[in-house]
Structure formats: C-alpha cells, structure tokens
C-alpha cells in the first residue's frame, strides 16, 4: 500500500484510488476532520489541509501504530497555543482540550 504524506501541507496523498478505497474499507482511517454538524469534510477551516475524505490519521491493521495530523502533541498545554478565542476563558498555564485525547489513550491502555 502506498500512501504519501505531503510535507508542506500535511495532508495524505493516495496515488491510487484503490489504495484510498482499501484504507476506508479496512477502517484504517480512525480520525476524520468533521464540520460543526459532525459530517466528514474536506473543506477549510474544518479540514485545514484538504485531506481526502477528511482523513486526519492512519493506523496499522492491528491498531498498534497511528500516524496523525494535526499533531496534538504540539499543543496539549494552553501556553503552547499561538492563539485561541477570548471566550474560551482558560487558564493559560493549564491543559488544553487536546490533553484529554492522551488521557483517554492512557486509560484505555490501563
């Protein structure tokens, strides 16, 4: 299976439609970009890089390996955010909403 990460834009590129179809049929795309109505989207700003079918992550068939975009590890604390809406009214030194994803993974592994 050939899937390429397009580095300058961060989206997945499938050189063969059959590969994309196999990824979807095999449930190897566990994370998708969605709009406010929870519909998978390829449209900015909900899908910031235009990934096909809103694919934001790929995993191995056994689920042990996960490659994802948008890199939540870069912003698990609020002080790491370059910008966020004032209405969030969060503690700048506290955790961001992304931290919960890592906490859920830890709980699941335990």
UniProtKB/TrEMBL annotation:
Assigned GO CC terms: cytoplasm
Alphabetical list of SMART domains matching this protein: GATase_5
UniProt xrefs under InterPro entries: Class_I_gatase-like
GO molecular function: phosphoribosylformylglycinamidine synthase activity
An annotated GO BP: purine nucleotide biosynthetic process
Domain of life: Eukaryota
Record SUPFAM superfamilies: Class I glutamine amidotransferase-like (SSF52317)
Protein name as catalogued: Phosphoribosylformylglycinamidine synthase
